[in-house]
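User: Run a structure prediction on this.
Assistant: Running it now.
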Amino acid sequence: MPFTTKSIVHETMMAPGVENRQHAFGVFMDTFNAMRNYFLEHYEKGIGMFIPSLGAFFFDNIHDTRTDRPARIPRFVFLSHFLTRSGLQCPKDQNADTLNLNMGSLFETKGPMHRINWTTVAGKAGLTPADCKEAWDLLLKTLQSNILSGVDGSIDFGIGTFTTNNFRGGMKLKKWVQADLCNNGTLGVVKTNQAMTTLGTFRVTEQLPRGTTIIRK
């Protein structure tokens, strides 16, 4: 059976050491739903989101030769240790090692980026920050175990859908999210960390590597 968000939650809930399983199910589901909403709210404002121990949704600044104007492209990258621990093979343009990216360089070169704020997530979920963080750590561990065991499936992360098949997988941006980003002007306004915090102007210096696949669905 392919894994889904609910099956990952159910498997985590049934793990040894979980005492009140029905309560745990609610904690896991509420945490993950709150995380998805949190990611989406920030991304639609043009802010990249770092998903702890998994990867990051971000934007690449480019020069659109069709319009001769700066533009932004939504992308996703998996952290190398997630790929190692799960045995997952992903597209080269979603592999942090291939792109020479790590958490530090993501924040420095692909900003603005935000780390997850567990207090905010907890407020959305009606839980404590510690409970939410622990819930995500356990869910991620179950997800990695499923992939490593050769189980295929998909998980909805709000912004995009993570899908695996025979140890190969990737993240695809949802069509309606892509449409929203186009309609609300996010993709037409190039931003950097400096531009977000000062009144200065800047030039687009980044170019996408040849053969880069834009995440779309």
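The CA atoms of residues 9 and 215 lie 26 Å apart.
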